[in-house]
Amino acid sequence: MSQTTSLREQKTVRWTAMALVSMGMLCGYYVADVASPLKPLLEGQLGWTSTEYGFYTGAYGWFNVFLGMLVVGGIVLDRLGARLTGFLAIAFMFLGTAAQWWALATTSLAGSQWLGVKAQVLMAALGYALFGVGIEWFGITATKIIVRWFKGHEMALAMGLQVAVGRLGTAVALGSGAAIAVALSVAGPFMVGTLALAFGLVAFLFFASLDRRLDASERGSESANPEDQFRLSDIGGILSDRGFWLLTGLCALFYSAVFPFLKYAPDLMVQKFGIEERLSGIIPSLLPFGTILLTPFFGNLYDRKGKGATIMLLGALFITGSHLLLAVPFLKFWPVAVVAVLLLGVGFSLVPSAMWPSVPKIVEERRLGTAYALIFFIQNLVALMGVPYLIGWVLDRFCLRGKETVTQEIAGKLEEIVRVHYDYTLPMLLFVLFGLLAVGFALAMKAEDRRRGYGLELPAGNVK
Ligand SMILES: NCCCC[C@H](NC(=O)[C@@H](N)CCCCN)C(=O)O
């Protein structure tokens, strides 16, 4: 290869880079969502309440928000580069998952309390909080890597495919988590996650060597030009942009209607649609499965035809309609759940496929790591920490309908477990509310784009 031709110009090489980075997304998303189908088992076998489950799932954002780890991650990324940040991110995910595995597998924490919380719940939550730092750092790193390798090429398609690979991890987690837990133990899915992340780390090391070759092919380092270096004062520049805030608001509200829903969807299937616990993740797993094809499809459409702001608005409308269908109390037949989840899948493909590639149209490339980190920070605060806890609290406080003790086969043995019954109408109405607010933000974003000329409605290559 000629030394003057950048490696990114070779299609096979840039797609190989993308595939290697996506392995981290696959394994990370598996672990991020594998607790969802375990909720009834955590309650039945380990005696957790919905509030404790909400506390644990909300822990995802603790360090990102309260220790500012997301902003730290953005700055580390912009200053020290994607290779080091990506490596640290996977290492955090690995350690956090191993800690969750231990918390659920050990008997040494049984009956103990730490800071007034069950020791097992707190230990699992701390593991999930560390994991949350890792996966968020990895998310911003992977995004910046795609921008670096794909600018001027199929960037929205690459971002869509990368998210699609992540969704595959979510689908596998939802579809297999409960079955693995019933066959092995409730800690079993986390053992699988720990091993998978070791594999993700190896794939990332291969990527890092390719990325070093990209530097060499461009005769410079990742941030060779001092003009391109990130400065702390850039944060002010990002925060003073109205378009940035509208996109951030849309992101926080849209994801509040989706990610926390996924944490409770298998339980909703059991409670409202009468699905067996072991199979409770099957219908929710249609959601990420649908997005695997649709997210890159819409990403490609955005690259070729534009209409990014319209795509985001449509997506917000789809998720609102889907939640409304699930909220109607008398629609309790499982085909309704299938239709609603498929509609949600369309919305869950439309918004991310246009939202993430729109950020570089609003923010300069050298500020991108920090911009994505700031967006993820607000998303963590609201959608990944606040709303999951709120839903768990609402379930315990307003939706409890009763408890019964039943006998169930677990890892080949018959065991007595407690089954808790909830009415999910109120939590579903909250999800509808988040959807409606997301529609409002999408409309405002469309108007701001017309006013400021970001180019959100234009195809790739036609933007300033
Ligand atoms: N190119 C940006 C990709 C972001 C994808 C986006 N991920 C997130 O929003 C993460 N902050 C949270 C991941 C949580 C995993 N369950 C997405 O749509 O997944």
Automatic annotation (TrEMBL):
Pfam families: MFS_1. The chain crosses the membrane at residues 12-32, 59-77, 84-105, 125-147, 159-184, 190-210, 243-262, 282-302, 309-331, 337-359, 371-391, 424-444. Keywords: Lysosome, Membrane, Transmembrane, Transmembrane helix, Transport. It comes from the Bacteria. PROSITE patterns: MFS. It catalyses: L-lysyl-L-lysine(out) = L-lysyl-L-lysine(in); L-lysyl-L-alpha-amino acid(out) = L-lysyl-L-alpha-amino acid(in); L-alpha-aminoacyl-L-arginine(out) = L-alpha-aminoacyl-L-arginine(in); L-histidyl-glycine(out) = L-histidyl-glycine(in). It is a multi-pass membrane protein. GO terms for cellular component: lysosomal membrane. Its main location: membrane. The keyword Transport applies. It is found in: Lysosome membrane. Residues 16-450 form the Major facilitator superfamily (MFS) profile domain. GO terms for molecular function: transmembrane transporter activity. SUPFAM superfamilies: MFS general substrate transporter. The keyword Transmembrane helix applies. Lysosomal dipeptide uniporter that selectively exports lysine, arginine or histidine-containing dipeptides with a net positive charge from the lysosome lumen into the cytosol. Could play a role in a specific type of protein O-glycosylation indirectly regulating macrophages migration and tissue invasion. Also essential for liver homeostasis. Belongs to the major facilitator superfamily. PANTHER family: MAJOR FACILITATOR SUPERFAMILY DOMAIN-CONTAINING PROTEIN 1 (PTHR23512:SF3). Homodimer. Interacts with lysosomal protein GLMP (via lumenal domain); the interaction starts while both proteins are still in the endoplasmic reticulum and is required for stabilization of MFSD1 in lysosomes but has no direct effect on its targeting to lysosomes or transporter activity. This is Lysosomal dipeptide transporter MFSD1.
